[in-house]
Every structure is written in structure tokens, then in C-alpha cells.
Amino acid sequence: MKGELEARPSLYAADMVVNPQGCSDYRGVANIVMFAVGVGVLALPNAVAFGGWIAAPLLLVLSWALTHFQTCLLWKCLFMNPSRKQMQSYEEVGRACFGRVGQVAVAVCLYGGIFCICSLIMILLGSSLHNLAPSLSRSLWIVISVALMLPFAWLPTFKRVGVVAALGVAATTVVAISVIIAGAREAAGPDDHEHVLGPQGIGGLGLAFTNFMNSFTCAPVAPGLIAEMKNPANFPRVAMWSFLIVTVVFGSIGFAGYAGWGIDMLKFDLIVDAVASSAGEGDWVNYVVQISILIVSFSHLLVLFAPLGKASDRALSCFLKNNTMHWTILPTGRSVVFLAAMGLALLVPGFDEPQRASPEALTNRHATLK
Fold first, then answer.
1. What is the pLDDT of residues 289-313, one digit of tens each?
2. Is the pTM of this model over 0.85?
3. Tens-digit pLDDT profile for residues 80-108
4. Which GO terms describe its cellular component (predicted)?
5. Going from the N-terminus, what domains does the chain have, and what CATH number goes with each?
6. What is the rounded distance in angstroms from the CA atom of residue 143 to the CA atom of residue 141?
7. Which residues contact 56 (CB under 8 A, 6 or more apart)?
8. Reduced to 3 states, what is the DSSP secondary structure of residue 137?
């Protein structure tokens, strides 16, 4: 019996193979950060307003700790295969645990959710671009933005997507700095805003914690990224630095917004609305925030689509016998999926009616889904 127990760990552990041509740790950090940091980050000052000065930072740190712990468990899970082969996706984990039914259930839930969120971000891009240039309709802006992004959707690996993600990280930094400036300016202004130490009741505490946990979501990107890393054994360290950056960004935007507007943040859907309400004509902070959010949205969409694109590649590979055809067929499959997400975005009822599909309402839905 003792010998069987000692043999079990090696039986269920796949080797972590080093890939010199794989994704570097730095690009891995960029991918995780841009998957977690989306337009939903703009609602974080509201989460701080619900939690107050004491509860909000505690909930933010708790969300960070729980997410890092759960992500490391997922990393271990990918190597706990009885066949001693690293699992490349959550579908493989589902199949190893529950057979074909588990594989299908995991694929439908995971990729169905990612597909819908991609469509939602396309709607947000169309709305944001329409607000900057209202001469074109929202639907036309969606088509234009998707057409510009389509070649980037063909990027086959997280190593290449990481370059785009790095631009998004830079834009996120600009957003955080701009919100800090706007919050400090508002706090020093003549208007008085109430600040509280405690949460807005039990409901406010729950809303704050839910918002923080949703904002840290990055699990869908983990299997593909781990499979492509130069050294998968470094993933816990990559995750640690990623979540540290995410926590700093979330804290900067959330607490700067709350410091500036206090409880009045709950009157706005997003921090950009609060900034715009206090901005004068031609205010540079307002323009910088709007443009930076567009860059963040572009990067976030590409990183978010990456697991969906890799799933499309795997599905097509099952039907392909001649590997020389992959370079033409796989990008076509990715294009079909990307354009299908655009089709769903264009079919959302009432999208061209601002009062029924405002960017603020859609962003709140994105934060809920994410």
C-alpha cells in the first residue's frame, strides 16, 4: 500500500517540457494583464464606493489572493493527467474527469461565454467610436473596427498576441494616471463629496466583492498560455507579477475615482462619465481617457479572442489530413468565428437607439459577464 501511494504522484504528473521558442514570461504577464483588464475596470470606483475606505482595499486584496490561488490550482490540474501528457485546454480536463460529456459541456460554457463577450466588446467599440465621430453610425463603426482587427485575429500564438497586449498594458497605465489626475483635481476642487469608511450595507459589500472578483477573471487564457510558455514551471511567478500589476491598476483607478467623487460615484455608471461631468471644454484629461480606452478595448478583444481562435484551430485540425493546408484553412476558420461575433453584435436589438443600448449599460453588462 505504501508503495502504491508513493507511486501515485508520478503516475498522475505530466512532465513540464521547456520550449526555447515559446512565449517569454514578460509576454505571458502582458497576456494575463490584458485579459483581466478590460473596459469593466472603469466601473471599479463604484465598487470602492460600495465598499468604503476600509472594506474595499481588504476585498481587493482578498480577490487578488483567491484568484492567484485558484489560477495556480488550474495550472497544476493541467499536468495531473493519468496519461502523463500535459493537457492543452479545459476541454481535455473535462474529458479526463467526466468523459465526452464533460468535454462538450466545458467547451460550450467556456467558448460560448467568450464568444458573447467578444460581441459585447465590439458593440462597445462601435459606441465609443460613434461618440468620438458621430457622422458614422454605430453599426458602420463596428464593421470598420472589426475589419481593421481581423488580420490580428489570425495571430496563432500568445507569443505574438503578447506584442499587442503590451500596447494595451501601456494604454491601461495611461488610463490609470489620467484617472488619478482627474480624481486629485476633483478632490481639490470646490465641490464637496461625501466619503465613508464602511460599506453600503450587506448588499454593497457583496456588490463590491463580486465586481472585484469578476475583474480578476483570466482563467480562460491560462491553458493556452501555459502550453506555449518557454518554461511552464514559471507560471506561478508569471501569475504573481500579473496579478500584482492588475491589483495596482485596479487600486489606482478605483481609489482615485472614489477619492475624487466619493459616494457620488454611484450616480455614474463609469469613471469616464464622472470625469466628463467635471471636465471643461477641450479638457485634455477627458480626451486622453477616451482614446486610451479605445486602445485598451482593441487589445482586450484580441487577447480575449485568442483562446477562441485556438479552439477553432483545434476543431479544424481534427478534420484536416494534410498539414500543408493549415496555413490557409486555419486563418479562414478564425475569420469565420470573428465575423460571426460581429454578426451577433450587429443583431443586438435596439443597438442603433442610444437610449436602449448605451455604452454605459453595455459596459455594465460586460463587467457582469466577465
1. 878 888 888 888 998 899 899 888 8
2. no
3. 877 778 888 888 888 888 888 998 999 89
4. vacuolar membrane
5. 23-369 (1.20.1740.10)
6. 5
7. 47, 48, 50, 199, 208, 254, 255, 258
8. coil
